[in-house]
């Protein structure tokens, strides 16, 4: 009986010791797992930090590269604009020089043309005066010849611009003078005179020239 009791107590003791050992082992396992979890979390955070740092550095590098490229672009644009400005200034100066040269040449040409035109007008005026004077002489001679013959002027003696005296068709008692605008009779002579239209529109037959 005492032996059985002793064995029972011994077994209880072992159970208590085993349970305590298992508790200690479980606690250590949990602590190790917790430490591993914390370490893993730290590792992940460190990796994230490193990745974030790399990302920021890459962004900074890209931004710096963009800034440098933009500065280079702006400098290149300024250089081109300056070259264009200088080239445009040269072009304008050359155009002004050419325009000034053209203007002087044109002024000389106009002045020369004006002088030539004045000479031409003067010559034409003299020629016209001579022509009118000659025409008056011829008309006077024709008139004298016609009056000597006692007849009316013939068609060949009358031309556009000749100063004549006519008897109006609409009133044969009225005589008027004027410059011939058109000759209406196509025969060389007519018993009542060559029919004409004056510049003022009056129509009649020529009685005499002058």
From TrEMBL:
UniProt-listed InterPro entries = DUF2196
* Stretches the record annotates as Disordered: 26-155
Q: Please list the coiled coil stretches.
A: none
Give me the stretches of Basic and acidic residues compositional bias: 26-142
Instruction: State the superkingdom.
Output: Bacteria
Q: What is this protein called?
A: YwbE family protein
Q: Which species does the entry assign this protein to?
A: Bacillus cytotoxicus (strain DSM 22905 / CIP 110041 / 391-98 / NVH 391-98)
């Amino acid at each position: 009986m005492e032996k059985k009791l002793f064995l029972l107590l011994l077994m209880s003791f072992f159970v208590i010791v085993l349970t305590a050992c298992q508790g200690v082992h479980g606690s250590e396992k949990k602590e190790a797992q917790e430490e591993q979890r914390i370490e893993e979390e730290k590792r992940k955070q460190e990796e994230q930090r490193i990745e974030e740092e790399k990302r920021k550095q890459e962004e900074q590098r890209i931004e710096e590269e963009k800034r440098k490229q933009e500065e280079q672009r702006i400098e290149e644009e300024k250089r081109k604009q300056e070259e264009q400005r200088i080239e445009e200034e040269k072009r304008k100066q050359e155009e002004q020089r050419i325009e000034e040269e053209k203007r002087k040449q044109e002024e000389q040409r106009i002045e020369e043309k004006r002088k030539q035109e004045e000479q031409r007008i003067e010559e034409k005026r003299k020629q016209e005066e001579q022509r009118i004077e000659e025409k008056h002489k011829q008309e006077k001679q024709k008139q004298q010849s016609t009056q000597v013959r006692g007849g009316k002027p013939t068609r060949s003696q009358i031309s556009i611009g000749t100063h004549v005296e006519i008897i109006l068709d609409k009133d044969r008692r009225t005589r008027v003078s004027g410059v011939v605008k058109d000759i209406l009779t196509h025969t060389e002579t007519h018993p009542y005179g060559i029919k004409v239209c004056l510049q003022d529109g009056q129509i009649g037959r020529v009685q005499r020239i002058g």
